[in-house]
# Entry
Amino acid sequence: MKFKGIFEGNNNAYGQLVLTGTKTEKGKAEGKAFIKRAIVTDKLWQDHIDGKDPALGVIPINEDNMCKWGCIDVDEYNLDHSIVIRNVKSMGFPLITFRSKSGGAHLFLFSKEFIPAALMQLKLKDMSEALGYTGSEIFPKQDVLDKASGDTGNFLNLPYHGGIRGLRYTFDESGNAASLESFYSMYDDLAQTREQIENIVVKKAKVIEIFPDGPPCLNRLAEEGFGEGSRNNALFNLAIYRQKANPDNWQDVLEEDNHKYMVPPLKSAEVQALVKSIGKRGYDKYKCKDQPICGVCNASKCRTKKFGVGFEDEQMPELDSLTKITSNPPQWFLNVAGNRVELKTEQLHNPNLFAIAVLDQANVVSPIPKAKDWREVHLKTLMQNLQEIEPLESLNPINQIMNLLYDFTVNGPQARTKEDITRKMPWTSEDITYFKMDHFFSFAKRNNWEVDKVKTGNLIKQLDIYLDEARLSLEKSTPRVIKIKAMKEKKEKREKIKYQEGTPF
# Structure
């Protein structure tokens, strides 16, 4: 399949997004994203083209840290795609613009051969900035995979799920949805060699912020002018910015902003009423969830700004691409200022421990916000785009509990009679093993098991060897015990040595 050849990435893992039917404030479809450690089969590719749910998500970076494609993910959902295409063409970039399912844009760069992921990242970041999409997500998210820790990288849902019916398509010259065959022709024209990609020159325009160190949304909207219907919310956010940036005369400066950027300006009485309300109620937080702000929000970039949603004294590094390996205990990975950082749950939850981990692994100094601010401003946002990764087989909780049960019931001390169960030993009779849950759980904890007792019991119930929970009659008591099929001792197969006549001993 040509489609497979174009979008090939990591062949040993793939992603899927199960949609919930709801959308974020920005209009992006919500769902649970997870990554399966399994071969990307031809059937998965075909099911994607046929429109079978869920869509196929491919991880662009392979296990050799190489890739054949990359993407600028523009999370703005009221885009005029014709303008995006025109801007891309005017700059001479070999990008193909696709509509995302939610109405944003995916700008793909294709290579005819596998190239270093770091090279793909570098060129896409430069082109993203030149196009005015600074802060947009870049795929591949990583330039080097931490394979030893089980990290797979992040996936992107591919276009043409169900052809043009799935709303993920590129455009023909008339601005209409282009067929898959038309896309193939575009690919043949625009796919680059490694040398061609290395030679892409991006002229970096000097970025002039209308509102220095302010939220990216305000700077972007100010360039276009705040139209009717958005002026009140926009001016409220400008007032919060001016309080932070111009504390001595923010009211006067806000009046100037009204006349410069509102189309048409609000009446002076309305501005003064807003100033009075903000001053009286002590507002100091931006309204990020209201239009027109939410439509052009760039939360990760905003948190790095002195007068953004982060912290006034210290700027937060850019945080994105949170992934979780669902092992026991779970492993977390997060991009911090472009560096991949591995975290334990307590490090992710505690801003103090988080700052230490980031300093250790990325040599990045992170401010330490209040615990509530960390959870509300940062962690909740990161969790909205969480991708879960299946653990390695050896780290799967089911496999782990089976190994623990084997060690407990086969390798450990065994009861000679059923009365010995009270001495914290399992008893086996007629291919059935009996043990008290408390005794097994204590054994598991001594062997670094970190799942609580209730979840441990539920895991045991999921096993094929689980039989029942019942009372066992002893001489002086009737303890409640777990019954499982007896596990057999694993005997290593040894080749018989064939001795030839005359072989010396």
About this structure: The first strand starts at residue 14 and ends at 23. The chain is about 35% helix and 20% strand. Residues 470 and 480 are 6 Å apart (CA to CA). The first helix runs from residue 2 to 7.
